[in-house]
Design goal:
Distance between the termini: 52 Å
Strand content: 15-25%
Shape: rod-shaped
Number of strands: 15
Largest sheet: 6 strands, mixed
Order of helices and strands: HHHEEHEHEEEEHEEEEHEHEEEH
Helix content: 25-40%
């Protein structure tokens, strides 16, 4: 169709062939093949000129607007490859949004005003490709090996926290064994029902502790609020609870035993033709290891 339209516009096979970067004979064969498939002559050829038949005129009039629209669509898509603009959809847990993305959003928006972010808060492990997301954010160890991952935070550390009202009349835990005497608030994965382990590191290495869960939830904001209300001890990311430690709403315990773990990573599927908007977001959020 492109060859046919070009011949119609140039009214000569030689000029059309040069425009299409092909030989006149190859172009002639292409047009004859089209006529053969349609079962009708489209062009009248003489040694001096090329003219449209009635059928050729009908086809040219109908197909030209479509070809123009296709060219414009290709140019529009190409602009997305060259200029960072459009929507970037990211799937991430609420705690990652708070400590890894939110502090940088104002500067990102200032740098890329034509990019719109669609942040979908999801505290479970979701197949971002199947769900149509451009990227996802998770802790390093939770990312599938078939995804490309880039670090967006340094390594993080956990903290065991409780409110002053909770510790009123209770002895604060000083060793891991003391946790058996405390009420605990624990994160629970919605899809699997698995509890997030309370992991520590002592002289014998890493150790997981079974705690007495009086409340489980798949939302870190709820666990934080419950801890502030004095309902029990929560095991949360240090950066997340730091403002509450600083203003005295929470108290930290077992700090020397709290372990460091891989920070948040932005991950995405390997793609040859990545939109400029997605690449800009990834590069902006990336931090050095």
């Amino acid at each position: 169709m492109k060859a046919f339209v070009t011949v119609c516009e140039e009214r000569a096979f030689g000029r059309a062939a040069r425009r299409l970067a092909m030989s006149p004979s190859a172009l002639s064969r292409t047009v004859r093949s089209l006529e053969s498939r349609l079962g009708v002559r489209l062009l009248n050829r003489t040694t001096r000129s090329v003219g449209l038949t009635e059928a050729g005129r009908v086809l040219y009039d109908r197909i030209t607007p479509m070809m123009t629209g296709m060219d414009e669509a290709v140019l529009a898509v190409g602009a997305y490859q060259e200029t960072p603009k459009g929507v970037v959809r990211v799937n991430l847990p609420s705690i990652a949004a708070r400590i890894a993305i939110l502090p940088r959003l104002a500067r990102f928006r200032s740098t890329y005003p034509e990019i719109r972010l669609d942040l979908a808060i999801d505290n479970d492990i979701t197949d971002v490709v199947a769900q149509g997301f451009d990227a996802g954010v998770r802790i390093g160890g939770q990312i599938s090996r078939d995804m490309v991952a880039v670090r967006i935070t340094p390594d993080l550390r956990m903290a065991v926290v409780g409110s002053p009202s909770y510790f009123a009349g209770r002895r604060r835990p000083e060793i891991l064994a003391d946790l058996k005497d405390h009420m605990c608030l624990t994160y629970k994965w919605k899809d699997t029902g698995v509890l997030y382990p309370w992991r520590f590191a002592d002289v014998d290495g890493a150790i997981d502790i079974d705690v007495e869960n009086v409340l489980t939830a798949n939302d870190t904001d709820l666990l934080l609020a419950a801890a502030c209300e004095g309902l029990g001890l929560a095991y949360l990311i240090e950066d997340f609870v730091m403002p509450f430690l600083e203003n005295g709403k929470l108290v930290r315990v077992l700090e020397p035993l709290c372990r460091v773990f891989p920070g948040f990573h932005l991950y995405y599927s390997e793609r040859t033709h990545m939109p400029a908007s997605v690449r800009a977001f990834i590069d902006f959020m990336r931090v050095s290891a």
